[in-house]
Amino acid sequence: MKGKLMDRNFKARCLKDRSWKTGFYLIKKKEPCIKDIKNVWPVHEQTICQSTGYLDCNKKEIFVDDLIKFSAELNGNKVEFEEIQVLFDPAYAKLVLFAGDYSYDFMNPEYENVRYEVIGNIWDKIALAKRK
To answer: Which of 23, 24, 25, 55 pairs as cysteine with 10 (C-beta 3.0–4.6 A)?
Structure first.
């Protein structure tokens, strides 16, 4: 298996300023929150993303719902996507890369020269309400 496995974090968009907050996921006063080293941040529930446990080529943590630039060789053929979404497939209990009607294994022992680069998250493109 290629890639560096790490502790599982969560990230979500903050209700106050819509910035990304990373840390532990918890419920406080019936509200979803992310707890970092110093603070507990109320977050938009639908934006909660769990870490895959892997880092990209820039040592940036990869989360479910991240958009990544992906390339690898599989059976001598180049597989490349400029933007593809990382998802968890509950039917097969594994991480997948999703584009349109197709999904591809996130990790595959047959991949060679694999490269992941986080370029954004699906929630970066969606307007969220701001709370004061």
So the answer is: 25
Provide the 3-class DSSP secondary structure of residue 118: strand
Q: How far apart are CA 109 and CA 56, in angstroms?
A: 17
b (16+ CB within 10 A) / e for 15-47? beebebbebebeeeeeebbbeeeeeebbbbeeb
Cβ neighbours of residue 26 closer than 8 Å, sequence gap 6 or more: 32, 33, 34, 35, 40
Which of the 8 DSSP states describes residue 111?
A: -
pLDDT over 90 (residue 2)? no
DSSP 12-59: EEBTTT--EEEEEEEEETTEEEEE-SS-EEEB-GGG-EEEEEEE-TTS
Residues in the chain: 132
